[in-house]
Amino acid sequence: MILSVAEQTKQIMVGDVPVGGGAPVSIQTMAKAPPDQVDRIVEQLKDAKKAGCDIARIAIPNLEAVKTIGEIKQRSGLPIVADIHFDYRLAVAAARNGADGLRVNPGNLGGRDALKAVVTAAAEADIPIRVGVNAGSLPKTQGMPAIPTADAMVNTALKMIADIESIGFDKLKVSLKAFDLFTTVEANRRFTIQADWPLHLGVTEAGPSLSGTVRSAAALGILLAEGIGDTIRISLSSDPAEEVRVARYLLRTLNLRPGPVVVSCPTCGRTDSQVVGLATKIESTLELLNLDLVVAVMGCEVNGPGEAREADLGVAFGPQGQGLLFESGQIVGKYANEELHDVLLARLKEIKEEIQHE
Q: Would you give the DSSP letter of residue 327?
């Protein structure tokens, strides 16, 4: 069982989603379409919400984008965080136009007057600010780019937090992201020792689906297993719903969020060729039915009920064309291998109906 220190962080609200203070680790994503393509953004975020997204971020590069916040928020059904760079006036406008939170970068927001204007607008709207520190865009030191170390990231965050607190504002969360796994991990560890603001975890510019998933899971898995992190985003060169699905599986693997799990054998020369296809279909079915079950799809008598004893439900393909259906480790039926797909799906639908009638 993972011991969480999340209850030691302060809690803020992003829309109706609690972040920090012992709340479940929430999942975020970001829309990936130009701000003038509102329909496309809404479609992406609706898909992300179906996949399990809690909070969405959208880029606000100009005042026209600010005007879309309310519509995107209403149509997507998700709290919307406005992502601001370079122009503090956009953050002020976003706060006044329905944003549920602001993300600002200490490296490019502007001076103290700009910061004060943003903080004042956030306070008036009663929304939080995320101090988003990226290793690649730290404030310059004596006119020179800062070296992207963990200490530099933490010091940048702490300085901006101190500036914001001095204005009298305390609805904050913080992110410290780098492409380098070890810099990301070390920065978040060091920040946790020095401050109790809720942390948004992520690896910036993680990469395409496969490499980005592995890099993000490695970094975030380390931190989450240590009880560090209150909300996460898996940054992939992929669609937002894919980011959310990866985040969900990561949190499930760490026992930090409930949800369906498919256990399937890796297949070998003894394995019926139907395993891969069936495992994929069952994964999709569990998501659609919203069933919090562990379902096993095993390829042979070696990887049968014995190695999937903890599964709620499962099938094992067998020799001579005969396979097994089992529940809670117990065999409940024998069927032709080609029937196992339909048998398993039918049983899942029965379970869904049983739950609905309880």
A: E
Q: What does the alpha-carbon distance between residue 353 and residue 348 come to, in Å, rounded to a whole number?
A: 9
* pLDDT at position 4: 43
- Residue 235 near residue 216 (C-beta atoms within 8 A): yes
Domains and CATH numbers, the chain: 6-253 (3.20.20.20), 261-357 (3.30.413.10)
pTM for this prediction? 0.86
Q: 240-253 and 38-51 helices cross at what angle (nearest 10)? A: 20
**Burial classification of residue 268, based on how many CB atoms lie within 10 Å of its CB (0-12 exposed, 13-18 middle, 19 or more buried):** exposed
pLDDT value, residue 5: 44
DSSP string for 166-212: HTT---EEEEEE-SSHHHHHHHHHHHHHH--S-EEE--TT--SHHHH
Could you give phi then psi for residue 184, rounded to 5 degrees?
-60, -50
- pLDDT beneath 50, residues of the chain: 1-6
